[in-house]
Amino acid sequence: MTEKKYVLALDIGTTSAKAVLFQRNGRVVAEDENAYPVYHSHPSWVEQDPLEIEQAAINAISGAVQKSGISHREIICVGISSAMHSLICMNDQHEAISPSITWADGRSVEQANYLKQTDGKDIYLNTGTPIHPMSPLVKLIWMKETHYQPYLNAAKFVSIKEFLLQKWFGKYIVDYAIASATGLFNIHTFTWDQLALSSAGITADQLSEPVPSTAICQGLTTELAERLSLPQDIPFVIGSSDGPLANLGIGAINPGDVAITVGTSGAIRQMASKPQTDDLQEIFCYGVTKDLWIMGGPTNNGGNVFYWLKEVFGEVEVERALASNENPYDLLTALAKGVNPGADGLLFLPFLNGERAPYWDADARGSFIGLTQSHQKQHMIRAGLEGVIFSIYSIGEALERLAGKPSNIFASGGFARSPLWLQILTDIFGHDVQVPVSHQSSAWGAAWFGLYALGEVSSLAAIKEDIPMKEAFVPHAVNHARYQELYRTYSELYFALKPHFHKLSAFQRV
């Protein structure tokens, strides 16, 4: 019998599907990534094709297995990670009759604002999901009020992970964390919340069955197994959402362990042994297991800010990168590194896609503040990178109010490949930051849940012994003091500009 030495993770992200093959000790053996497009059929609508995502997932899994050169019989299982807040309408033939509407979709701003004035606080206290257009609950209210045809014809409402599980295994099941992120799941009872269901105009039987993250699916068809380059009987472990899995995969699972992740968007999170919410409604609290919750806040604006900076200011660097086979982001980072911390008094509010935590304001808008004739391209790039971290720091203040001060900070996601961005993070927080060797923390968390579900490891906490780490980043006291001074201004700017953001947002929608 072939010895099983490896574990595979499928990570369904905002813009791509990644498959990562790990050794049992967390070392990456092979990985493959396949992107998929985003469609904007109307202003503020953000949609994807579920079938394109499925194909990307199949290609990623097959690609990682083939790149590794190992026998597929050596793979123990597949664990699944997925981005949150997607929504797909399904008919009674188990077919998607709507696009996958993503977390970034803003069509339901009016419904979110109205719900905040009515039952929103009670729903938030029950579900731990702030009232915002990202939430499937609010999207469903929009569907109900606008008589959206797929909603009227739907037999089920699912996330992209549920869509794949149904297509591959014929089951409508959802893990607790993905369920929590819908705004329809009661984090105290671990059942669908009646007040939220009533607001959405749906019933519990139109949703999947909530199950633990250790739930196992098996029995691929011969054709699908061949397309995936996997055995038909390989166990797929349902896993969780990318947030708690990033915490797990980076080792941030004890009280005081704070994980900061920046990919396309970003988040700061901390695990908790009981659910905690309050009337300020600034942070989320999602169920992970029946004795573990995750608290924190997401920002809409992370790596997408750097992408925007590249597109707007980086024409020269993009051309140079193409000519010399370099990375344009590295070239732009080198420019920003030559600028003093604080970008010589230039601040950037990074609200290019509105904002979630701590303001939950889809009408927030991005702004450069403090521009002078002496500021150049490199200042604007540095201010953009710093603005993303200032935003996360503001969420961290809200998290600290409920969870206490951090004792350890861990960083993961695409931004963890940038030493400059990590040093900015370290200097703004004034705290050592630990970074894993692999930036695929959500994938490793999903893989570990797979090992745990099959009894291959003793506990979730045991993962701490199998996370290869780099040397920690250490803050510079002078830089931290400078950032603290600037943050006092940054923290007031959103509230000062809020009425103007809303007027401009209304103008932009006309």
TrEMBL record:
According to its UniProt entry, the protein's GO biological process terms are: carbohydrate metabolic process
Question: What's this protein's name?
Answer: Gluconokinase
Segments forming domain Carbohydrate kinase FGGY N-terminal: 6-249
List, for all copies, the residue spans of the domain called Carbohydrate kinase FGGY C-terminal.
259-453
Top-level taxon of the source organism: Bacteria
State the Pfam families in the record.
Answer: FGGY_C, FGGY_N
Query: GO molecular function of the protein, one example?
Result: kinase activity
Q: Which UniProt keywords apply?
A: Kinase, Transferase
Q: Coiled coil: which residue ranges?
A: none
SUPFAM superfamilies from the entry?
Actin-like ATPase domain
Name the protein family.
Answer: Belongs to the FGGY kinase family.
